[in-house]
Amino acid sequence: MINTIWVDADACPVVIKEMLFRAAERTQIQTTLVANQAIRIPPSPFISFLRVSAGFDEADNEIVKRMQIGDLVITGDIPLASDVVDKGGIALNPRGELYTAENIRDRLNMRDFIETMRSSGLEVGGGPPPLNNTDKQNFANQLDRLLSQR
Is the distance from CB of 75 to CB of 81 less than 8 angstroms? Predict the structure, then answer.
């Protein structure tokens, strides 16, 4: 049962945040956005914002520290997703991919491989493409699926 939704908010697309705001109101699940810069949130007893100091992985570390078993974490950050899964949480990326104990190691290994290629000077393609309508729909469907198990 999901008691809290944590959002790695620095890089979370606006459209995904808006879906999460609506879901928080509808389900009355506490949703906390964590970032090292100001994030606008609607007034709601179910939505809050936690600002962390600027620095590498500050938001990620705070989320892992505060989350509980079964909490849902929205992130595109694979190392954070790995920590969440290891701690018994549920990690969902903004494209609707659910990270699990079965798939997170492969994602982490691929990420590390690409980082190694980049650091050795090889040109490795840019970041992921912008969210498209299929990604948004996949996220909405997966979020609804997870929240309906409540």
Answer: yes
Q: Tell me the CB-side half-sphere exposure of residue 142, using CA atoms within 13 A.
A: 20
Both tokens assigned to 114: 């690409």
What tokens were used for 53? 């100091």
Structure tokens given for 14: 């606006």
| 100-111 pLDDT per residue, tens | 988 877 777 666
pTM of the model: 0.86
Q: pLDDT digits over 103-134, tens only?
A: 877 777 666 666 776 677 766 666 677 899 99
- Distance, in Å, from the CA atom of 42 to the CA atom of 56, rounded to the nearest integer, reads 27
Phi, psi of 35 (to 5 degrees): -160, 165
The first and second tokens of residue 41, run together, are 């949130």
